[in-house]
């Protein structure tokens, strides 16, 4: 029985502007050729700078937007082919938690109403059932039952994010996508929420896709990490291996630029220099080449394929992960590019 979720060559281009002159409408290449899998009860992190396509991947998975091409399979079934009621069932299994609980929680509803609402979209609850469900969910996320009557504005940032998580849990999902879910919180509150998530994963067997620009957070929670740059995955590796020995120069630069909580840990010496190029007109060849200290001539000409390394990670870099060529064609990581 394969992975819970499998993403194959997912691509999303947005036309830019109204395009009165039908032809040559510039497109934003938000996500290109992204492939990965997520097993039941595991955490896959997606990291990268803002604008790298992380949130677009999340929205594609939730089917809030349609892909330009590529497939999303849940338990081996392509969600593009699902009928309306099947899609509803799929939505039930997959929930999302956003960065800003201010904008994602209805300010006019009490905490109890907020967390039972998703269930009530599917079934009618008696007063008693609703109360029991709310009490159970609050308890799961470590909130006191008194919170039930409060409005979101009467809660702290950490409490509001616990509430968002309780709401996501209400339908007993197989997978929760967390998009910068702790980024707005203080560091100490962040750690509490991350620990809560890991406890919930153990108790309930939920898988997470954890999207963040913050490597410190990712190192804390991730089992596998996909690094995105300008719409593409450039490295996908087990968390420990990635932090111990980043292979892609961009991963290395990201880790070097991140604040190091442990000052005894060696810092790498490659700053992330230069601007993030535009996804409207990405650089030729390897999109990282204008910022890459290792760039060679070939990097400007040819897009590096994702190559499977001896230790099981996949990396797209001509210098650090040279591809094997057969008849002039690179041997790509293929299905194994879904990750270690
Ligand atoms: Fe740098 Fe070239 Fe590797 Fe891209 S392919 S990361 S430019 S060395
Ligand atoms: Mg985002």
From TrEMBL:
Its main location: membrane. The keyword rRNA processing does not apply. It is found in: Cell inner membrane. Pfam families: ABC_tran (PF00005), oligo_HPY (PF08352). The keyword Transport applies. It is a peripheral membrane protein. GO terms for biological process: peptide transport; transmembrane transport. GO terms for cellular component: plasma membrane. Keywords: ATP-binding, Nucleotide-binding, Transport. GO terms for molecular function: ATP binding; ATP hydrolysis activity. Residues 5-255 form the ABC transporter domain. NCBIfam families: oligo_HPY. Belongs to the ABC transporter superfamily. PANTHER family: D,D-DIPEPTIDE TRANSPORT ATP-BINDING PROTEIN DDPF-RELATED (PTHR43776:SF7), TRANSPORT ATP-BINDING PROTEIN (PTHR43776). This is ATP-binding cassette domain-containing protein. It comes from Mesorhizobium erdmanii.
